[in-house]
Amino acid sequence: METASHRRDTRAWSQDDLTRVLESIPHIVWITTPDGRTEYFNQRGVAFTGLAAEETSGWGWLTVVHPDDVKRARRDWQAAVRAGTPLATEYRLRHADGDYRWVASLAHPVRSTTGDILRWVGTWTDLEEQKQTQQRLREAATASAESMACLDALHLTAPFAFGFVDREFRLRQINDTLARLNGLSADTALGRSVAELLPSEWPRLEPIFQRVLRSGECVSNVDVARVGPGGDGSQWLATYYPMRIDDRVVGVGFVGIDVTSRTRADALRAAVTASMAEGLCALDRRGRLTFMNDAASRMLGWTEAELRGRDMHAAIHFQHADGSRYPKEDCPLLRVRREARPITVEHDALTRKDGSIFPAAVSVAPLINGTDFDGAVIVFRDTTEEKSELERTRRELTALSWVGRIREALDDGRFVLFAQPIVPLLAGEPSEELLVRMIGRSGEIIAPGAFLPIAERFGMITEIDQWVIRRAISLAAPGRRVQVNVSAESILRIDLLSVIEQQLRDSNADPSLFVFELTETALLRDLEAGRRFATGLVELGCKVALDDFGTGFGSFTYLKKLPIHYLKIDIEFVRDLSNSVQNQHVVKAIVSLARGFGQQTIAEGVEDAATMALLREYGVDYAQGFFIGKPAPA
Q1: Rounded distance, CA 269 to CA 191, Å?
Q2: Does position 2 have pLDDT exceeding 70, yes or no?
Q3: Which of 144, 146, 415, 586 lies 20 to 30 angstroms, CA to CA, from 569?
Q4: CA 29 to chain centre
Q5: Separation of alpha carbons 587 and 80, rounded Å
Q6: Closest CA to 433 of 443, 445, 446, 448
Q7: Which long-range contacts (CB under 8 A, 24 or more apart) does 316-322 make?
Q8: pLDDT score for 16
Q9: Could you please report the per-residue DSSP string of 48-93?
Q10: What is the DSSP letter of 182?
Q11: Is the pLDDT of residue 354 over 50?
């Protein structure tokens, strides 16, 4: 529907206006009389061929056609003029630098309302610079009102269709315009192959898709003829471009413009920009917003009306991702005027209306009117999900690398136990907690936090637990009192009690020297399995400790249902004990609770004498921490 703002933007075109538009088109444009004699070349044609304007008139342009191609170029053009049908051919032209370059020569007749040919309008496209040509065409088609008006005059303004296929050429995104060409809705077209939807055109289109995937380069201005479900034919001008994630081509995007009938330039711009997933903004020469599409509005939280006329650097690009100031002189939104070239920043940041910052990939291209800078076009996308996916991939790769390192360490016997002393504060015997460490390939000691979570995730923790138990029992055989940790996986997945019983029997070690520490995490997985395991340990003559006591909601339940001898007070309640009244209350409560159940307490994380004194005052039975002794090889 035409809006009031569209009506205000519409105006009659003068000859000077049309000339300026033709001169701004990023192609060599030429116009001929009905009988094919050239009467106009734009400045790109003059610069490309090196011919003066008067030298290109009539049939003068043939002087720059390659000698081997002159006959064919003349024949194709004369045949098109005689038949009144569009021209589509290729030949070599001599560039002003003396080299010959292949060009695509396309021409369409401009007819009166009675069907008579008034003029021929044609273009030469340098096939050796397709990437640059495609970029200029996209900028003109999506951001430049002058270029889109020119496309309308050249009968190239039409409904916009786009889609995206993966590397197996199955549709992953498609808009309604393209879907309707095949009599489908966008939803029903998704997931189908191009060969299935376009069986007659696929033999011609497949090499184009393959070429884009293989080369990573665009293929532009491809004529595609379509016959719709109702038998109506249409002609499309298509561009195929690579879709990349982190420089990897993941599929092919394609954009098509229906050149069957003319449409209004504003309608085309609305269709194009509304269909884009990327944000699109147009700025005037001073960096102020003149246009913003719906995607940009959604990402930034601003409406076009709120930002129109505002300095976009000051509005959305004034700070980096870390909140530090973004100097105006470094801003690509403004540098493009100074450097007069496209600028792309893959890792940038934009600020929303609510002040939040999001990562973005930003491309800025200048709009040139003749030789003057007339503004800029900004295309950006939110890369939050891309960064998250990249980080997830990196974490997975890191985890997989650790799997191999853990497997090697198990096979090579590169695990070792460290012992940290546990001392009595009131009465009792000292003991040690045995802590597993891994030895790296270069002999370095690796802390458990680096490898145990990976071992648990990938099912290797049971092997480590069994190694720890065998080694702990051998160390305790001479009479050392030790405490060891047992994972939830080992309790649930293997008959660990049988392993412990066999090792105790083989080593003739005293079971009463062993304390097995269970965590609330292990008990949460299966309380009944944890109860059976703890009961079995006690029947063997071992003792059981509940580790990290006080951090979970089920701690009191475990005191009633499990045969527990020791409560290990979590380090969070011991750290800063002398300065935290809350922690003091918690520790006193745990001591009182343990005595009520006939259990003893062990405080972890003791780091100073003041804490040690308070623990003794509160009646804690044992203490463990760096103040008493750091873990050392057992």
Answers
A1: 28
A2: no
A3: 415
A4: 40
A5: 96
A6: 448
A7: 316/350, 316/351, 316/352, 317/350, 317/351, 318/351, 319/349, 319/351, 319/357, 320/349, 321/349, 321/357, 321/359
A8: 72
A9: HH---GGGGTBTGGGGGB-TTTHHHHHHHHHHHHHHT--EEEEEEE
A10: T
A11: yes
Tokens 């050429």 identify what position? Answer: 169
Q: Above 80 in pLDDT, residue 430?
A: yes
Task: Express as a percent the part of the chain with pLDDT over 70.
Answer: 87
- 150 — pLDDT class (breaks 50, 70, 90): very low
DSSP secondary structure letter of residue 170: B
CA-derived radius of gyration, the chain: 38
CB atoms within 10 A of CB 99: 10
**What three-state secondary structure class fits 26?**
coil
* One-letter identity of residue 44: R
CA 81: distance to chain centroid?
Answer: 51
Tell me the C-alpha distance between 366 and 166, whole Å.
31
The residue behind tokens 């009539």 is 58
User: What residue type is 297 in one-letter code?
Assistant: S
Could you tell me which of 61, 46, 138 has the C-alpha nearest to residue 92? 61
* Residue 409 parent element (H or E): helix 384-412
Percent helix, percent strand, percent coil in the chain, to nearest 5:
45, 30, 30
More confident residue, 435 or 272: 435
> In what helix (H) or strand (E) does residue 417 lie, and over which residues does it extend?
strand 415-424
Distance CA 39, CA 45 (A): 13
Whether residue 484 contacts residue 468, with contact meaning beta carbons closer than 8 Å, is answered with yes
Task: Indicate the residue type of 428.
Answer: G
DSSP labels for 383-397? Answer: -HHHHHHHHHHHHHH
DSSP annotation of 124 reads: E
**Cα 345-351-353 angle, rounded to 5 deg:** 145
